[in-house]
Design a protein that fits this description.
Elements lengths: L13 H15 L7 H16 L3 H24 L2 H4 L1 H27 L6
Helix pairs in contact: 1-2, 1-5, 2-3, 3-5
Length: 118
């Protein structure tokens, strides 16, 4: 197995860490803004990921991006449940919301520990 040359990676500054914490924070409280903050965070995730060369940071950007798009998919897929009655749709969307919050908090905690989200 090949050794990783860590000298080729730039050292991360406190500003880089702050940006990641802000992005996780925006994703986590996005439910309060009906998703607007998540869209803003998603755009920043795409921009920052393109400039990133640290594998841990790239994996966290990918994790947040994937979490957003899977959440959108499941919200769209479960939306027809509202046609049956409000309760099944509300239950499904609550489950999706809880899953989204779980992924955001789990990723944020793993980032704080300096680990990849997986």
């Amino acid at each position: 197995m090949a050794e990783t040359d860590f000298a080729q990676f730039d050292t991360k500054t406190p500003t880089d860490r702050t940006v990641m914490h802000v992005l996780y924070g925006l994703h986590t409280v996005a439910w309060a803004s009906m998703g607007t903050l998540a869209v803003i965070a998603l755009i920043v995730n795409y921009i920052k990921r393109a400039d990133e060369n640290d594998a841990v940071y790239v994996s966290h950007h990918n994790y947040m991006i994937a979490t957003f798009w899977w959440t959108v998919l499941w919200l769209v897929v479960t939306s027809p449940l509202y046609l049956l009655f409000i309760l099944p749709g509300a239950i499904a969307h609550t489950i999706v919301l809880l899953w989204y919050l779980y992924r955001c908090i789990r990723g944020w905690l793993r980032f704080t520990d300096g680990r990849t989200p997986f």
